[in-house]
Each structure stands twice: as C-alpha cells, then as structure tokens.
Amino acid sequence: MNRNKTLALSLVAIALFLMTACAVVPHPNEKIIVGLWRPVKVERVVDSSALLAAHPHAGDTTAKVAKPGKPGVPGKTGEAGEDARRGANLERLQQIEMRATLEIFANKTAIKHYPAKPLNATWKMKGNGTRIVAKNLANKTKFVIEIEEISQDRMVIMEHAQSVDVRVTYERQK
Length: 174
Hints:
By secondary structure, the chain is an alpha+beta fold. The protein has a domain at about 25-60 and about 100-170: Lipocalin. It is built from 4 helices and 8 strands. A hairpin with a 5-residue loop joins strand 3 and strand 4 (about 120-125). The longest helix is centred in the middle third of the chain and has 21 residues, at about 80-100. The radius of gyration is 24 Å and the shape is elongated.
C-alpha cells in the first residue's frame, strides 16, 4: 500500500513538473504588435514562383505567344492587354493597402480597416515571432504575414497575395 502511494505521488509530481516546464510563453513580439498601425510605404514584390503558377508558360519558349495588340488564342486577349490589366490591378492593390490601417488587439483579434469594408480576423504568432497566421472571420480563409522588421514604433511585414507579394511598412499610431 505504501509503495502504491509513493508511486502515485511521484507520477503526480512528474506530471506537474512537465506541465509547468512545457508551459507556453508568449513571444515578446506579441506584445509589441498590439496597437493601431498606419501604413507609410507599400512596395510590390513580384514572387517568381507565384508568377509561374499563374502563367505556366512564362518560362516555356516553345509556347505560342500573342503579339501585343493582336488577339492570340481565340477567347483570350493579347499579352499587352493582360499586362496592362495586371499592372492596373497591382496599382489598385497598392493604393488600397496604403489607405488601410491595421488594428491588432491583445485578445488575438485584428481588424484591417479597408476603405470599403473592414476585414476582421483572429491571429496566432508562429515561427518564433517571425510569422503571423491569421484567419478571416467572414470566410474562414487563412493567410500568412511575415514580419521582416519590428520595433516599438515601426513594423515591416510581407503579405502574400495571389501573384505578388506586398511589403508594407507601418508606423504605430499614437
């Protein structure tokens, strides 16, 4: 009987030790990012792997390419039209990001205040404080934000879009 009590107490002590030793400690960046952030600079960074996924024949020299201004394959526009439209979409994305403030709360929620409609999300810090994995509350899609640089007053992040990465520099709103 005494032997069983000793064994039970030692198992409980080991379990308590493991639970306290493996406790999750939040990364210091979690406290730094909480607040209201205003974008001051937005840069487009073309991701070559995403570009190849969007246009699989970009590296293929044998594929037929339509000449600028002339229709190529029936039902498709010429390359010049696609490039102009893609450039206009990227410019619009850059302007929208420049007007969207980011508000991050300590309860692991965030709101990105886009001009048309705010984006509400929940977030988790991953990658030893270098990535934020966020989940849009409206449509449940997940997206990753990489933290490139962070301080008390400034944050530089990389947002991954479909065919382009966007580097946004934020300053803390006072």
